[in-house]
# Entry
Amino acid sequence: MASKEQLYTPVLVIGAGIAGCSAALVLADMGVEVTLIASGEEERDANSWKAQGGIIYKAEQGDPKSLERDILVAGHRMNNQRAVRFLAEKGPAVVEELLFKRLNVPFAQHAVNPRIELEWELTREGGHAAPRILYCADHTGSSIMDILLEAVKKSPNIRLLRGMTAVDLLTSHHHTRGMTYRYQLSNQCCGAYVLNEESREVETVLADYTVLATGGVGQLFLHTTNYAGAVGSALSMASRAMARLENLEFMQFHPTAFYHQNAPRFLITEAIRGEGAILLDAKGERFMSRYDKRGELAPRDIVSRAIMNEMLKTGAPCVYLDARYVRHDLVTRFPTVFEHCMQYDIDIRKDLIPVVPAAHYFCGGVLADLNGRSSLERLYSVGECSCTGLHGANRLASSSLLEGLLWGWSAAHDIQRRLVAHKNLTAKLRSDIELWKSPASGEHNDDPALIAQDWSSIRNTMWNYVGITRTQARLYRAFEEMRDLSSHVHAFYKQTQLSKPLVDLFHGCQAAYVIVQACLRNKKSIGCHVIVD
# Structure
C-alpha cells in the first residue's frame, strides 16, 4: 500500500533539541517557513533538556585562544582547528544574540558594587583553564529549552509536528521514478519519509533543505544518561543515504551518573566537581591524583577510566562523590541533583553520592562543515548527531549546548542565503519522488517481546564490547553479533507494518553496526576510543 500523504516545506528540521529549535527559530525570524518534526508527544524528549552544568560563554577578559587550547587538549588534538576556532570566536556573539537578546535566558548573576549592578556568574568545569561557563543552577538545559521552545511555538513561520518519526531520507539517487536522476553524479536530499505515530502511516515530506538534529546514540548502551529517543537515527538514515560519517568510535562516557539498583542513570553534573566536590573510593579515600595531576578536574575520559579502574580493583559497584564541603548552598546551586538524590534518601549536604560512568555524549556523527552542510547535497546536520571535528577524540565539558546553538544558527543563515538565491528543488524532481510503499502483507506483527530482546542484545553487546575500554577481540565479537542481528532486523523490518518501536529498533541496530565497524577500523587508542591490548 502506498501512502497518499505528501507535504512540501522549504525547510524540514528533524529533531527539537537546542540545535533543531535554534535552526528553526533563526530561519523563521528571517521569514523562512519551516516544518519542525519531533518523535513522541513528550516535549522534553531531547538530551538538551538534560544538560545540567552550563553553556560556554567567555572568561571575564575574553579568552578565545585559551578556550581553543582547552578544546584541543580535551580532544587529544584530533580536532578540526577551523571548527574549534569558529566556536571560540563566534560562539560568545551568538550566545549574546540568541540567549541574551532574543530569548532573555535567566543565567545566574551577581552584584559587583553597592549600586547592585549585575554581571554574569561564571563557573569552571573539568578541562577548563578559567571560569567561562554560564549556568542556571543545575538545570541550564531545561531553562534554555523552556524559553526556546516557547519562542518556536509562537512563531507563525514554524509548523511544529509532534508524534512524527523520521524513517528515511529521500534522495534523488534512491527514491525517484525512472533513471534520469540516477545517472547524475550529484545525489540530492529531497526530504524524508516520516511515520505518523498515531495513524502508523508513512508520509512523504518534500523539502528544499533538510536538517538532521536528532541527537546522540546513548540508548545503544546498557547504561546511559540519554533520553529514550537517542537511538542514532541520524547515523542510520545518513548511512543509507550514503552521506559521510566520521569519528564514530568516539563515544564519551560521563564519569558520574547516579547509581542505585532501583533508579535510572541520572546525570550528576560535572559542575559539582568544578565547584570543589571530590571523588572517593569504597574506602573513603581520594584517588584521582594517581591518574592525573588535574585530579577531579581532568577531562571526562580520564575520570571515567579512573573510576572504572577503581571499581575493578576493589570489586565495588560504584565510587562516591563527596559534595559536603562545596562552598555553595547545594540546595539552591544544584536543586535538580539535590531533589533527585533525596528521592532515594541521599542528602548530598551530608551523604556521599554513589556514582558510576554511563554513555553520555557522541563525539562523532554525520560529517558537516562550519555551515552544517553534509556531503549529501541539500542535507545539513547540526548538534550531537553531526561531526564537525569540534570535539576530536573527546568533548570538553559544557561545549555541547554551545555547539548546538552555534551550528543551528550557522546552518539557518546558510540555508536562508541559498533560498534567497532561488536554489530550490526543481518541480520535476519533486514530482518524481516516489511515495512510501508499505509491505504487501500489512501485518502488525511487531511483537514487543521480540523488540525488547533485540534491544537487550544491542545494549549488552555495546556496553560489554564497545564500552569505556575495548580490545580487538571484543570488537570482533561485537561486529559478528551486530552483523547477524542487523541481517535479522532488516528482514523483519521489510515484512512488518511500521510502528515507532520498530523504526527505533531499526535505526538503533544500524547505528550500532556502523559504530562497531568504525571502532574496528581505528587501531589507535586515543581519547574516548581506548584499546587496552
